[in-house]
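The records we work with from here on pair a chain with its fold. These numbers are not coordinates but entries in a learned vocabulary of local backbone shapes. To see the layout at work, look at the sequence and tokens printed below:
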Amino acid sequence: MKNLNVFALAANDHLVQPEEFSDVQAHTSALAILTDFRSHKPHMVDSHLEATEALEVMLAEAVKTKIVVDDSKEFIGVISVDDLADHNMLLKQMALHVKRDELLVRDLMHARANIRAVEYDQFKHASVADIVSTLKKTHQEYLLVVDKDAHHIRGIVSSRDIASRLHAPVEIEKELTFVDIFTAVKVH
């Protein structure tokens, strides 16, 4: 067994954040951008939590995205601080005819059924550029990474986190729905 040398921190030693580095490029392994739940506990939020409270917690924790779970702590969706922005809450309030303090995380989340996944074995051989391309082609802000053999949701990647690590925007166009097209035609 080795004895390790310990020392006191210097005054200029500071806590680093991934965004401070320029180590992620388009050709970098996708594993560099994966929030792997095998080694990092997922940031979770209860689906029944009031949306305004969830936003406060996320801002206080400086967490941009959380996994939404049900009472059994099973994955049911994803929520981001953008989803909890004032304009999104106002639109949802009007759609559901509820007061702001009655809006819950589940009302604003991206539901499990709408989030796409890739196999971990395929993901680990992909590059960051491959993941960005997949996000854009599928109009997804998030991709889950799944170990299909074990039926484990291994992790998540988000366009926001990738953009932060690349120090460049990653624009994901929203896929148009019938409602979007109908609304656009009706207005004109």
Summary: Residues 19 and 87 are 28 Å apart (CA to CA). The chain has a mean pLDDT of 91. Strands lie at 35-36, 44-46, 65-69, 75-80, 110-111, 116-119, 142-147, 152-158.
